[in-house]
């Protein structure tokens, strides 16, 4: 069977050349990252880097390796005006006539690295609309303005999942030829959910709306929802959202009272917006208790946000519990 390769797919979809170059640059560097991950302990890349990032989190060696590889690959592309990374304190200026700004989470799910479990790279591409010299301000655009968003999932297969605003397509890495081939086009999330995804260990710290919503799910057939739900938690947003794109369900990382000043754990510009763009493109919904995430006007690049996303009808029910 002959399958469409990523470059051909992008040309067929009439994606602008400069945007194609950014997506292909990310695809290429992801192959190198996947090879480092596959070598694991043999390449001495597992374990802690011994430093803390701007988010106040301990970095793994692979967080740093993936960040450096992506930074170097993107900075070499004339279409890239500037970069912002979860692992970098400040935005980085690149080419003065580049058309795009790229934000990324170089390695999502880092706590999975040392247990040989799933991790990913998440990226978001925004148009550059500001002045010549790139500042943080230029990046502060609502997620709805993304020109493209996607992720690479380093699992049993390496997959690239992408939207340029015209649906969601999935590509699988052919590891013999190091190229991504189209394996699923037009992804669509079922409206009703049978699965939910949340870190249950934090239950006692959630707001009342979330506690009530999850308790009702746990009551299953005998409760007000009248049906049983299954639960999954990979501890890598990229893998949990991938499951939702493949077979539906709801994913949430709520605000929690242990760090009241912090609006949840997930980052708006590196996680919620790009994954949210994909989920909306696949017919799902993406909310905080207050409104749609893609409409949020960001205030700074490392901003965090409570996230409720996935099956359209289930997300609305969850938001409803918060608004009662
Ligand atoms: P990162 O590895 O980029 O810091 O992101 C991890 C995030 C997200 O991917 C995942 O859903 C969540 O943290 C897992 O959190 P818990 O530790 O609460 O399971
Ligand atoms: Mn992450
Ligand atoms: Mn990360």
TrEMBL record:
Cofactor: record remark: Binds 2 magnesium ions per subunit.
A single BP term in Gene Ontology: fructose metabolic process
Domain Fructose-1-6-bisphosphatase class 1 C-terminal, chain residue ranges per copy: 189-322
Cofactor field: Mg(2+)
InterPro entries associated with the record: FBPase_C_dom (IPR044015), FBPase_class-1 (IPR000146), FBPase_N (IPR033391), FBPtase (IPR028343)
Binding site for substrate: 108-111, 199, 265
GO terms for cellular component: cytosol
Entry's EC annotation: 3.1.3.11
Catalytic activity, as annotated: beta-D-fructose 1,6-bisphosphate + H2O = beta-D-fructose 6-phosphate + phosphate
Positions that bind Mg(2+) 2: 105, 108, 271
Record has Hydrolase as a keyword: yes
Main location: cytoplasm
Domain Fructose-1-6-bisphosphatase class I N-terminal: start-end pairs: 15-184
Keyword Cytoplasm found: yes
Broad EC category: hydrolase
Record GO terms (molecular function): fructose 1,6-bisphosphate 1-phosphatase activity; magnesium ion binding
Cell location: Cytoplasm
Keywords: Carbohydrate metabolism, Cytoplasm, Hydrolase, Magnesium, Metal-binding
Amino-acid positions noted as binding Mg(2+) 1 in the UniProt annotation, renumbered to this chain: 86, 105, 107
Complex and partners: Homotetramer.
PANTHER family: FRUCTOSE-1,6-BISPHOSPHATASE-RELATED (PTHR11556), SEDOHEPTULOSE-1,7-BISPHOSPHATASE, CHLOROPLASTIC (PTHR11556:SF35)
Family from the record: Belongs to the FBPase class 1 family.
Protein name, per record: Fructose-1,6-bisphosphatase class 1
Species, as recorded: Zhongshania aliphaticivorans
Taxonomic classification: Bacteria, Pseudomonadati, Pseudomonadota, Gammaproteobacteria, Cellvibrionales
């Amino acid at each position: 069977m002959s399958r469409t390769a990523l470059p051909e797919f992008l040309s067929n979809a009439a994606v602008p050349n400069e945007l194609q170059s950014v997506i292909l640059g990310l695809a290429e560097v992801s192959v190198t990252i996947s090879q480092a991950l596959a070598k694991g302990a043999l390449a001495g890349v597992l374990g802690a880097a011994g430093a803390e990032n701007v988010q106040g989190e301990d970095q793994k060696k692979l967080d740093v390796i993936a960040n450096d590889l992506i930074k170097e690959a993107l900075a070499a592309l004339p279409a890239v005006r500037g970069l912002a990374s979860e692992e970098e304190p400040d935005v980085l200026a690149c080419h003065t006539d580049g058309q795009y700004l790229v934000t990324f989470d170089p390695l999502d799910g880092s706590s999975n690295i040392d247990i040989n479990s799933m991790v990913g790279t998440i990226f978001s591409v925004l148009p550059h609309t500001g002045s010549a010299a790139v500042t943080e301000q230029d990046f502060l655009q609502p997620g709805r303005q993304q020109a493209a968003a996607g992720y690479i999932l380093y699992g049993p297969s390496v997959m690239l999942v992408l939207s340029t605003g015209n649906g969601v397509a999935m590509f699988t890495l052919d590891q013999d030829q190091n190229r991504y081939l189209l394996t699923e086009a037009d992804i669509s999330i079922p409206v009703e959910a049978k699965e939910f995804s949340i870190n249950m260990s934090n239950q006692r710290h959630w707001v009342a709306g979330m506690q009530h919503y999850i308790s009702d799910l746990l009551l299953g057939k005998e409760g007000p929802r009248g049906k049983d739900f299954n639960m999954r938690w990979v501890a890598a947003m990229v893998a949990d959202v991938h499951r939702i794109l493949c077979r539906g369900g709801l994913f949430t990382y709520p605000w929690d009272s242990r760090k009241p000043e912090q609006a949840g754990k997930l980052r708006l510009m590196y996680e919620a917006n790009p994954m949210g763009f994909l989920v909306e493109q696949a017919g799902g919904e993406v909310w905080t208790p207050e409104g749609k995430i893609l409409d949020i006007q960001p205030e700074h690049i490392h901003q965090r946000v409570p996230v409720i996303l996935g099956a359209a009808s289930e997300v609305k029910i969850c938001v409803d519990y918060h608004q009662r």
